[in-house]
Amino acid sequence: MQRLGRSWQRAGARVGLVPTMGCLHDAHLSLVRRARRAVGPRGRVVVSIYVNPTQFAPGEDFARYPRDLARDCGLCRAAGVDVIFAPSDRQMYARGADGDFSTFVSEESLARGMEGAARPTHFRGVTTVVAKLFHLVQPEVAIFGAKDYQQAAIIKRMVRDLNFPVKIIVAPIRRERDGLAMSSRNRYLTGDLRRQAVVLWQALQRARAAVRPPGKTIPAARLKAALRRFIARTPAARLDYMEFFDPATLTPVAKVRRGVHLALAVFVGGTRLIDNTRL
User: Fold this and answer.
1) Is 178 part of any domain?
2) Nearest residue to 265 (alpha-carbon basis) of 203, 207, 221, 208
3) Which structural domain, as residue segments, surrounds residue 274?
4) Residue 143 in contact with residue 169, Cβ under 8 Å?
5) Which pairing describes strands 44-49 and 83-85: parallel, antiparallel, or unpaired?
6) Distance CA 156, CA 122 (A)
7) Residue where a domain terminates, one of 171, 193, 215
8) CATH number for the domain including 210?
9) What are 32-68's pLDDT values in tens digits?
């Protein structure tokens, strides 16, 4: 992969990377389309498919995370992807006579709250594997989805701080007709759980409505309490975290107004879902 990426660079072809963990859906394919627009018809679009073990903590769903490489390859071919990079764990995390893989990339500021607090080792795994993918694929541009808002901010910071020659594009969230953000984990939602999962979108909409009047300001603690009560009325839903924050710095805010960002994580049954929106 690295030799191929370098050969494209020497030939003057722009390279776009869409990092995924597979089990592709239309939100992923929208990232592929965005990558194609960025590199042009003569550029190269690479989709990486790798369920990265270092971003899962013990007890999370690494073993059962949905995998369907044959289906993913068919979708990528139909979408005009040039190369699918699907490495093995042995290739990504080398073990040799001198010891196991022991070098990691950590962002120490933006990763502290929200997902970083709920899943303390998660972002170290994300930044490490993305840094490796950047070295291997040699992209000029990489496309990430806004559903993982904090992740995208951290990747941008890593690129800035470590001087990666990669432009990061964050594409809008893609939603189902009822508002649920598209996610590979939605496959876990069986029976009535799928209907109840819409509570995340409904909570975001309630927050947006609360600050819609121009100049409206609400204490964050009060709005959080109201949204917690609303989510609790959904039988299968259990709030993991909710945060109102500055969209540039990810710093929590005490007062909520238009322009503030809201992110939340909710367990629906045994499935953990995340979502976010700008108010």
Assistant:
1) no
2) 203
3) 184-278
4) yes
5) parallel
6) 16
7) 171
8) 3.30.1300.10
9) 999 999 999 999 999 999 999 999 999 999 999 999 9
